[in-house]
Specification:
Blueprint (H helix, E strand, L loop, with lengths): L7 H17 L5 H32 L6 H33 L2
Length: 102
């Protein structure tokens, strides 16, 4: 019942292949999902809040018949949504191209 002992070179090679497979295909995890969710949220929140602050400043210094704040909040939401869409699209394309090699 003795197993044939593998050489250290074979053992190191096996470990290296296993680590490379794990690095190339990390799989899905709840933390990765939360990271993606956070990235999308920040992509929308930062331009929206930035638009609000810029709009408030413009309303004080260059008043118009319309409110800069509302216009720039809507612009920030639109810009943030575009950034999030582009990021998700890029991630989906990168993920798809990784699996094309299999």
């Amino acid at each position: 019942m003795t197993r044939k002992r593998k050489s250290p070179v074979e053992d190191i090679g096996r470990r290296a292949r296993r680590r490379e497979r794990a690095r190339n295909d990390p799989g899905s995890s709840p933390l990765r999902g939360l990271g993606v969710f956070g990235m999308i949220g920040w992509s929308i929140a930062v331009p929206t809040v930035g638009g609000a602050f810029l709009g408030l400043w413009l309303d004080r210094h260059m008043p118009q018949a319309f409110q800069w704040t509302i216009a720039l909040i809507l612009g920030g939401v639109a810009l943030g949504s575009f950034i999030a869409w582009a990021w998700v699209s890029k991630e989906a394309n990168d993920k798809g191209s990784e699996h094309d090699d299999d």
